[in-house]
């Protein structure tokens, strides 16, 4: 049988109590964290989990979709110093090196297989 959750509601109630006394939520999270021997992030997670289940607002508003399309101003481009090697060139060089290594190893493998076949034919034949 599942246990009834008690920590989350207790944290939620204590944070709301401290916020009611004039503290910010961040200060309340820190205070409850020291009281309970937890990290403020853990307290905040418990608080907001309970707030979501109770339908309480988190205090932040989500951005709604724009109803009209207004053109945005283009951002000014920054003059950046040219890197020694661009990432695309670096990736191409890396791929070229890897492909060369694969080709060399393949040639080595083929020569060893041919040597083995020659030895087997000599033994069998």
Uncertain residue ranges: none
What is the H/E string? HHHH
What's the N-to-C terminus distance? Answer: 76 Å
> Helicity level, as a percent range?
55-70%
For the sheet with most strands, the description reads: none
The number of helices is 4
Q: Would you report the number of β strands?
A: 0
Beta-strand proportion: under 5%
For the CA atoms, what is the radius of gyration?
33 Å
Q: Could you say which overall geometry the principal axes of the C-alpha atoms support? A: elongated
Q: Please give the oligomerization state of what you see.
A: single chain
Residue-averaged pLDDT, rounded?
Answer: 83
| Structural class determined from secondary elements | mainly alpha
Structural write-up:
The structure is a single chain. This protein has helices at about 5-20, 25-35, 40-55, 85-125. The mean pLDDT is about 85. Among the domains are: about 5-55; about 90-125. By secondary structure, it is an all-alpha fold. The longest helix has about 40 residues, at about 85-125. The protein is built from 4 helices and no strands.
What is the gist of this entry?
The chain is mainly alpha-helical and 125 residues long.
SSE layout:
Layout: H1 7-20, H2 25-36, H3 40-54, H4 87-124
Helix pairs in contact: 1-2, 1-3, 2-3
Keywords:
125 residues; mainly alpha
